[in-house]
Design a protein that fits this description.
The protein is of the alpha+beta class. The chain has a single domain, classed as Leucine Aminopeptidase, subunit E, domain 1 (3-Layer(aba) Sandwich). The chain contains three helices and four strands; from the N terminus they run ββαβαβα. The strands form two sheets. The protein has a two-stranded antiparallel sheet with strand order 1-2. It is globular, with a radius of gyration of 14 Å. It starts with 8 loop residues before the first strand and ends with a helix.
Length: 116
């Protein structure tokens, strides 16, 4: 697999993992230019492109981590709002989306936002 640009997504086989595919995406690093919306657009694109790739492969379920919210520094609440909006707006055949939260703070954010 060749490289992947920030905001894009590509799939590989999952080999020994309990899935058919792994969809790779490159999230943006949070920087001061966020005021222009650049990082927001790139992060939204990560989710949208991942959903498109999964849909093209006939995938019925997909799991997402909180992309870019770790060492890349994207604010967790802002990232969660973008992720949820992209998933809700997607018009494909994916039946199930799981948001994987690696800490209690992220879990609380997603729980609150998804209940709205």
């Amino acid at each position: 697999m060749s490289g992947c640009e920030t905001g894009d997504a590509k799939a590989t086989r999952a080999y020994g993992l309990p899935a058919k595919y792994i969809i790779h995406t490159v999230g943006p690093v949070w920087r001061p230019r966020h005021l222009e919306g650049t990082e927001d657009r790139l992060l939204a694109s990560c989710y949208h492109r991942s959903l498109e790739v999964a849909d093209q492969l006939g995938v019925k379920s997909i799991a997402f981590p909180a992309i870019s919210t770790g060492v890349y520094g994207f604010p967790k609440e802002r990232a969660a709002k973008l992720a949820i909006a992209e998933v809700r707006a997607f018009k494909g055949n994916i039946e199930s989306v799981l948001f994987v939260c690696y800490d209690a703070e992220t879990h609380a954010i997603y729980t609150r936002l998804l209940s709205d």
